[in-house]
Design brief:
Blueprint lengths: L4 H7 L2 H18 L6 E5 L5 H8 L5 E6 L2 H10 L7 E5 L5 H5 L10 E7 L8 H11 E12 L1 H4 L2 H6 L10 H7 L5 E2 L4 E4 L4 E8 L5
Parallel strand pairs: 1-2, 1-4, 2-3, 4-5
Antiparallel strand pairs: 5-8, 6-8, 7-8
Bound molecules: S-adenosylmethionine (SAM).
Organism: Nocardiopsis metallicus
GO biological process, one term: methylation
Protein name: Ubiquinone/menaquinone biosynthesis C-methylase UbiE
């Protein structure tokens, strides 16, 4: 689901970039860096997270997808200097083969790491997005996530300012419980912030899948 105008403005602002630095630091603490990795990013928005995946996590490349052409245009400008290390595609996080098909990406077990900076709560069928993450990760590959839970989405400020799917949103516990159903092992590598409004974690793709 696309962001409304308020969220689109906030997501490309200095406070969001500052917050994303903090989120990246927590994710590195939980799951380590990804030097030399071939990675995918779900819902890259204006591309600041993509830059962090390259600069902070040390990935070699990022295939990034977003539904919104306006966000992709911003990301393209921001990431120009990284050249062929970044591939930006319009499409859905629930079908990475379609999005990355032109570069032969999005195949089974094709990424060392997948990043989700606050996007899966925008997807009506969020379980389908987790299944897609698991499908494209190599065995032992890592899924870095930073998510907004149903608790946050139910707050009056969220409801007044932003548009999100309303049915079947996940609590932190529901999101964590869904991961192993797709062969994603989470263990203790997660934290909540501001009560249980925000959930950050790093899951690992198991060898055998489910
Ligand atoms: C809250 S923004 C996060 C953007 C960026 N990751 C960040 O943290 O600043 C959510 C982004 O997900 C995108 N989005 C929503 N549903 C999507 C889907 N099914 N597939 C890909 N991108 C999607 C939106 O267009 C938006 O750019």
């Amino acid at each position: 689901m696309l962001m409304n105008r308020v969220e689109s403005a906030l997501i490309d602002s200095p406070p969001r970039r500052l917050l994303q630095h903090y989120e990246a630091a927590v994710l590195v603490e939980l799951g380590g860096r990804t030097p030399g990795a071939h990675t995918a990013e779900l819902g890259c928005g204006p591309g600041y997270g993509t830059k962090l995946i390259l600069d902070t996590f040390g990935a070699a490349s990022v295939d990034a997808v977003d539904l919104d052409p306006k966000m992709l245009a911003k990301a393209r400008r921001r990431l120009q200097r990284h050249g062929e290390r970044v591939y930006l595609a319009r499409g859905s996080a629930t079908d990475l083969a379609a999005a990355f098909g032109p570069i032969d990406g999005g195949k089974d077990a094709s990424y060392d790491a997948v990043f989700d900076f606050a996007i899966i709560h925008h997807i009506p069928n969020w379980r389908e997005a987790l299944a897609e993450v698991a499908r494209v990760l190599t065995p032992g590959g890592r899924f870095f996530f930073d998510e907004v839970t149903a608790t946050a989405l139910a707050r009056p400020t969220y409801k007044a300012l932003f548009d999100h799917p309303t049915a079947d949103r996940f609590s932190a516990g529901e999101f964590l419980a869904e991961l192993p159903r797709h062969g994603l092992h989470i263990g203790e590598n997660w934290r909540t912030r501001i009560g249980s409004d925000y959930l950050l974690g790093v899951a690992t793709r198991t060898q055998k899948g489910r």
